Amino acid sequence: MNTKTQYYTRTAQFLHWIMAIIFIAAWVIGFYSGNFLSYDTDGSFKGEVITLHKNVAVLIIFLVVVRIFWRYTHPAPDLPATMSPLMQKLAHLGHLMLYLMLLALPISGALFSWSAGHPVPIIYLTEFPRLLQENPEIVAIVRPLHVYLSWFAGLLIAGHVLVALKHHFIDKDHVLKSMIGRDQ
Ligand code: HEM
Ligand code: HEM
């Protein structure tokens, strides 16, 4: 008999949802600043929005360390047996890519800020030590890297949410519940 729980631990669920909210908020603020505000017409407002983007987004770097440790020590529940081996592999690959985005976006964002000569603040209280000098040649690499990664992450998350909803409403399996419910 398979006695393995069908649910993620409460800690894993908490980390998933809090990070989902922070990640989506950071994404929307960054996208708004990058595509709807300009230094020419919006003056210092754009600077304030970018600062907000950074302060929200850096929380991810602290939480992802805890989350990876927790994931390593607490395995995920099995995917439904109704999923083919190929679909299960794709689901795991999708999760791996999401974890990579949780690491790559704050790291590329921080490299972008430092190399452009700006600080990486921590919740408006302090800032990370500067690990890079101002350097336009590095900006030319990490700026597009951050922007393209953010678009890729946006597509990945849209797919992730649609698949979760499909599992719940069409396949009617326990995948979405595994991230919400718990054993009785
Ligand atoms: C969860 C992490 C993050 C996400 C999801 C994210 C997402 C985004 C998005 C969607 C954009 C707009 C891209 C575009 O122009 O189309 C952006 C821009 C930007 N991000 Fe991030 N980012 C993250 C972390 C960071 C961090 C940690 C920093 C710096 C400390 C940072 C600095 C910037 C800057 C300076 C811009 C340019 C904004 C502008 O040109 O108005 N990002 N980010
Ligand atoms: C807000 C809408 C979201 C919904 C409805 C949702 C739903 C789910 C569900 C049901 C699972 C577990 C089962 C599975 O997919 O096999 C899951 C896992 C996961 N989600 Fe989300 N998610 C959302 C947003 C996000 C965001 C924004 C991120 C991060 C960028 C994210 C990252 C992950 C990761 C990394 C896993 C794998 C967990 C593990 O096995 O350790 N999710 N999500």
From TrEMBL:
Membrane topology listed for this record: Multi-pass membrane protein
GO molecular function terms listed in the Swiss-Prot or TrEMBL record: electron transfer activity; heme binding; metal ion binding
Domain Cytochrome b561 bacterial/Ni-hydrogenase as annotated: residue spans: 8-181
InterPro entries reported in the protein's UniProt record: Cyt_b561_bac/Ni-Hgenase (IPR011577), Cytochrome_b561_oxidase (IPR052168), Di-haem_cyt_TM (IPR016174)
Ranges annotated as spanning the membrane: 12-32, 52-70, 90-114, 145-165
Biological-process GO terms, alphabetical: respiratory electron transport chain
Superkingdom of the source species: Bacteria
GO cellular component: plasma membrane
Record keywords, A-Z: Cell membrane, Electron transport, Heme, Iron, Membrane, Metal-binding, Transmembrane, Transmembrane helix, Transport
Co-factor(s): heme b
Keyword NADP listed: no
Main subcellular location of this protein, as a coarse class: membrane
Family affiliation: Belongs to the cytochrome b561 family.
The protein, known as: Cytochrome b561
Source organism phylogeny: Bacteria, Pseudomonadati, Pseudomonadota, Gammaproteobacteria, Moraxellales
